Amino acid sequence: MEERVMSKNMKLWLLVINCLMLGIGNCIAPLTNRLYSVKGGKRIWLMCALETAGFPFLLIPWLISYIYRRRKYGPGTNMTSISPRLIFYSLVIGVLTGLDDLMDAAGVSKLPVSTYSLVLASQLGFTALFAWLLVKQKFTFLHINAIILLTAGAAVLAFNSGSDVPTNESKGTYVVGFLMTLGVAVLYGFVLPSIELIYKKAKQTITYSLVIEMQVFISLSATILCLIGMGINHDIQAIPREAENFELGKAMYILILVADAFLWQLFFLGAIGVIFCNNSILSGILISALLPVSEILAVFIFGEKFTPEKGISLFLACWGSISYFYQEAKLDKEKKQEQVAGDENQFRDVPEIVLQN
């Protein structure tokens, strides 16, 4: 494992960097999606493809990682190290991600960003459930409490959806958007622990450069799936016409698409990077814990309503996330105390061994 060649401080910095990437992508990418939709963009498959089409940006960190390893291990260092087995798993995860992207693009185009973000709060609960099933993650009372709170937060929106239907959309469209977004939470809640399971079961050393390579194949597979959908739906031919009619102009249209692709790639790389440095649960925690940022940005940028139902849902989402953070910090403290106690016992045994000799 890369831990043997990476200091604790460097691993901590790597974790911080991936948390920042996940946070920036998670908070801002939905806003660019919504901006595209409210200003005249109607191509769902295009939005779907953009969520993974930014994988060429990964060539930059991949190259940086290669230069670092080459300097450390010499000119014989290979630029790629992914095995056919991991390529296959990455392509499968990519197909699931492509389906997730389709539902996500459809959901965010039919819902206010604030509602969309709050429904996604339930993703942490699904991540926890699949982490328990796939990687045998252990849970305490506070873990279960957080799952219940986050699920209840999404349920509040479901049962009070009628008060939040945008004036230019039917209630049926709103419900479809809600269900699509909930599907995103379930599917990506499955994908995150699946990636952690792949790391654990891989028959080769998992390094961060390998994580980047896996993300390239995941994104490539998902993008191909979305491009097929774009071809069937004639989205490719419609892009020039849509750009000409975009309310903010053609140049802004292109800028929004490029920014959207880049931001989503930040999110995905950050998510699997956090799994590499820690686990899938932490990825889910961060996605839910950053919801207040999306809420504030959506209200100020798009002037969306902040209804009482959203307030209750946001409160439950924050409470659930805090429960997770508190429990993880408590477990980490207990682990360190046990380690210190073990070291002390080991030192006490030394004089006895010397006397026996």
TrEMBL record:
Main location: membrane
Protein name: Probable purine permease
Segments passing through the bilayer: 12-32, 44-65, 86-103, 115-135, 142-162, 174-198, 210-232, 252-277, 284-303
MF GO annotations: purine nucleobase transmembrane transporter activity; purine nucleoside transmembrane transporter activity
Family stated for the protein in its record: Belongs to the purine permeases (TC 2.A.7.14) family.
Source organism (scientific name): Heracleum sosnowskyi
A Pfam cross-reference name: PUNUT
Coiled-coil blocks: none
